[in-house]
Amino acid sequence: MSAARRVATVAEALGLSRAPALVAIVGDGGKSSFMFELGRALPGRVVMTTTTRIFAAQMDVAPEACSTETPGWEARLDGFESGLLVVGGTEGARALGVPPALPAHLLDRDDVDWVVVEADGSRMLPVKAPAAHEPVIPDRTDLLVAVAGIDALSKPIGEVAHRPERVCEIAGLPPEAHLTPEALAAILISPRGGLKASATAARSALLLNKVASPPQWEAARCAARCMLRDPNVERVAIGALQGGDAPGWEVWSR
Fold first, then answer.
1. Full-model pTM
2. Using one digit for the tens of pLDDT, what is the confidence trace for 208-220?
3. pLDDT digits (tens, 9 = 90+) for 159-174
4. How far apart are CA 88 and CA 130, in angstroms?
5. What's the pLDDT score for residue 121?
6. Is the peptide bond before 20 cis (omega within 30 degrees of 0)?
7. Which residues contact 4 (CB under 8 A, 6 or more apart)?
8. pLDDT at 242 over 90
9. How far apart are CA 141 and CA 203, in angstroms?
10. 86-144, pLDDT tens digit by residue?
């Protein structure tokens, strides 16, 4: 039996109430937006980082940012106020990731409450299934969050998916087909999809983003109920990181 409730912030939606904790974000459909929104919602001092690559422009969006290639960069950890983005250098339009062991090292500091890590590659599409080398989960991850956009249902799989051949394989559908809520749920809970790295984390949750219109809410709720049938899924949060018409988040749990 699943039940839903409404909460104000994405941190509440994911049950993040006790620091310290390390959160790893995988999937597609708004991972960077989610990382920054979670960084704002969490109480205390939050370090954000990536073990893959993000756009270098994200460094301008962050409250503060630094690169591990800069001599003495760790001094920035002493002085930031609430949120700091740490990257492993820049290469053209991309900011490079840090080693998977670094996030846990940062969390070991007495003055860091949370570390939030973007741990998966992205093509700015609503849904993905990871390649063999993905995701890059940090050591000692407390919570793994798999993200997808509900707009993954709006067009054929070949147009909405990152690594569409893998998505099609999991969903059992051809590239020209549209995903159903049930198929999207199957991708997110699959050990070849969103929960591929769940064994490396203490617990797992799922987040459906870009849920705004009544039909999208109906589809997202259907997907949430399907996902909660998997015993590895603790909860599903549905809502919109940007531009949603309903305040807060709807949380589905058993």
1. 0.95
2. 999 999 999 999 9
3. 999 999 999 999 999 9
4. 22
5. 87
6. yes
7. 221, 224, 250, 251, 252
8. no
9. 9
10. 999 999 999 999 999 999 999 999 999 999 999 998 889 999 999 999 999 999 999 99
Distance of CA 126 to the CA centre of its chain: 12
Which residue in the block uniquely carries the two structure tokens 């809970």?
Answer: 189
Between CA 62 and CA 83 the distance in angstroms is: 7
Q: How many CB atoms lie within 10 A of CB 229?
A: 11
If we measure between CA atoms, which residue out of 178, 185, 175 comes closest to residue 222?
185
76: its two tokens: 């920035």
Q: Is the pLDDT of residue 244 over 70?
A: no
**Encoded amino acid at 88, one letter:** G
Q: Say if residue 43 is preceded by a cis peptide, omega within 30 of 0.
A: no
Which is nearest to 40 in space by CA: 152, 147, 95, 116?
116
Tokens of 61: 């969006």
Cα–Cα distance, 64 to 49 (Å, whole number)? 12
Structure token pair of residue 200 = 């490396």
- Please report, for residues 56, 149, 158, 179, 240, the alpha-carbon distance to residue 176 in angstroms, rounded to integers and kept in the order given: 33, 19, 6, 10, 27
